[in-house]
């Protein structure tokens, strides 16, 4: 099959990620920021009791691989709701992560290699949110599903989803050639796709607007399509 270009539903268009990802540290914000030190086996915060409102996490990667950091909120008793994230933090580099946090409990996850559930630290937020223009922005998606492929299988997909959820699907391509991550709804129509180069991670946000069995497909030139199913109820 011919590899197609990514659709407009890419994460790059998400309001959340436009404000959270790939930003260089801001000197003024860093004066009161929460310092996060990420390594290959730890995720240390200089404090875990925070005031509600706009919070800056100043992330420094002291590990040996590229990392990313997520802030998760609680959803049905589990910390799976993505509040904000910052990605592609190389070794010995720093980036800021910005999040608007109402009072509650959250988890900060450092993900060495940009895979897995991450090394998590619980933070407690108290007080009233003073609010800002950024606070009114939609989060962009409800949670993330992290996938990986080596060209022979798709890993990382388990369980199901709920109709109406907006999910960020992330594919780490460990194969030697380009791959396309494609989502099809229960009618077989293509809901979105993104091309992922070898050694990188591609992302796409899909709203699961219908119940039934969705297909998660990884395609590549000259390669057999890899297909996994995602039940949506």
Q: What would you note in describing this structure?
A:
- The chain is globular, with a radius of gyration of 18 Å.
- The protein folds into 2 domains: 13-136, Immunoglobulin-like (Sandwich), CATH 2.60.40; 142-232, Immunoglobulin-like (Sandwich), CATH 2.60.40.
- It starts with 14 loop residues before the first helix and ends with a strand.
- The longest helix has 6 residues, at 15-20.
- A 5-stranded mixed sheet has the order 3-9-8-5-6.
- It is built from 2 helices and 17 strands.
- The protein is mainly β and 233 residues long.
Give me some keywords for this one:
globular; 2 domains; four-stranded mixed beta sheet; 233 residues; Immunoglobulin-like; mainly beta; disordered N terminus
Give the SSE map.
Layout: H1 15-20, H2 27-30, E1 34-38, E2 43-45, E3 49-51, E4 53-61, E5 67-75, E6 78-89, E7 94-101, E8 104-112, E9 119-126, E10 143-149, E11 154-155, E12 166-173, E13 179-184, E14 190-196, E15 201-207, E16 212-220, E17 223-232
Parallel strand pairs: 1-4, 3-9, 10-12
Antiparallel strand pairs: 1-2, 4-7, 5-6, 5-8, 8-9, 10-11, 12-15, 13-14, 13-16, 16-17
């Amino acid at each position: 099959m011919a590899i197609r270009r990514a659709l407009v539903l890419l994460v790059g268009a998400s309001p959340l990620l436009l404000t959270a990802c790939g930003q260089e540290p801001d000197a003024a914000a860093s004066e009161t920021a929460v310092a996060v030190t990420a390594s290959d086996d730890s995720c240390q915060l200089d404090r875990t009791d925070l005031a509600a409102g706009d919070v800056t996490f100043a992330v420094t990667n002291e590990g040996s691989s590229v990392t990313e950091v997520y802030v998760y909120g609680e959803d049905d008793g589990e910390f799976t709701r993505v509040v904000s994230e910052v990605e592609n933090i190389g070794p010995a580099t720093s980036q800021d992560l910005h999040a608007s946090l109402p009072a509650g409990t959250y988890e900060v996850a450092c993900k060495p290699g940009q895979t897995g559930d991450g090394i998590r630290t619980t933070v407690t937020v108290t007080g009233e949110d003073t609010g800002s223009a950024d606070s009114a922005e939609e989060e962009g998606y409800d949670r993330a599903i992290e996938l990986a492929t080596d060209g022979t299988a798709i890993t990382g997909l388990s369980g199901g989803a709920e109709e109406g959820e907006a999910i960020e699907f992330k594919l780490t391509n460990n194969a030697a050639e380009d791959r396309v991550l494609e989502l099809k709804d229960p009618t077989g129509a293509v809901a979105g796709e993104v091309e992922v180069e070898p050694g990188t991670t591609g992302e796409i946000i899909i709203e699961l607007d219908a119940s039934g069995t969705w297909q998660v497909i990884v395609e590549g030139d000259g390669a057999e399509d890899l297909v996994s199913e995602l039940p949506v109820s």
